[in-house]
Amino acid sequence: MTNAEPDASVGTGEPARWERAAEYFLRWRDGDARAMDELVRLMTPPLWHVVRAYGLDRALAEDVVQTTWLTLVRRHESIQDPQAVSGWLTMCARREAWRVGKQHRRADATEAEALEPHLPAQESAEQTAATDDEAHRLWRAVGTLNERCQRLLRIVAFEERPDYARIAEDLAMPIGSIGPTRQRCLAKLRAELEGAGWGGDDDGEG
Question: Which GO terms describe its biological process (predicted)?
Fold first, then answer.
């Protein structure tokens, strides 16, 4: 597998980013809640860099990164090769960033031209409508969760190194309960999506 982004581990004797991502993804898929924390810490910085390169402001970029992680929760079963998960996340983030950037018309013609080599194939009007509907249903599913779960899912998406002491204080819960609670919230989201007819067999990069 190739990875277009530089990996700081190259030449250090440490596993490459995509190898570590594959390991964490496998552990999470097998039920290790803490592995998601590791995967988020590993992949959120490069995903953030990719998304910001599309000219999105901070708020829009945060939405795109969060949507990328939620899409992984929903579509993880479509990833047949765990070693492809880093590329899968990157492509998902690029597609969502392009869609959101186009929708909000943030990039001028020069920026769009510079980004062209990195953009996914142009979507048809039908594909764009389907993607918009999918995003709407995804956020609607998140909205069915309680406030604590919604806040924890936002932490999953954005905090490279979550401050567990602050989270525990904000949510009035023991530090040791944060990881298990977050995993239960992800399970609730997955169940909500499956109950709405969203299986894990969507087409995806895998």
Answer: DNA-templated transcription initiation
Boundaries of every domain in the chain: 17-195
Contact (Cβ atoms closer than 8 angstroms) between residue 54 and residue 107: yes
Give the residue carrying structure tokens 């709407």: 136
Measured in whole angstroms, how far is the alpha carbon of residue 163 from the centre of its chain?
A: 20
Q: Give the position of tokens 């990875």.
A: 3
Phi (first) and psi of residue 149, to 5 degrees: -65, -40
Give CA–CA dist 165/71, Å, rounded: 28
Q: Tens digit of pLDDT for each residue in 52-91?
A: 888 888 888 888 998 999 889 888 888 888 888 998 999 9
CA 80 to mean position of chain CA atoms: 17
Q: Which residue has the tokens 């993804």?
A: 25
**Contact (CB, 8 A) for 53 and 71:** no
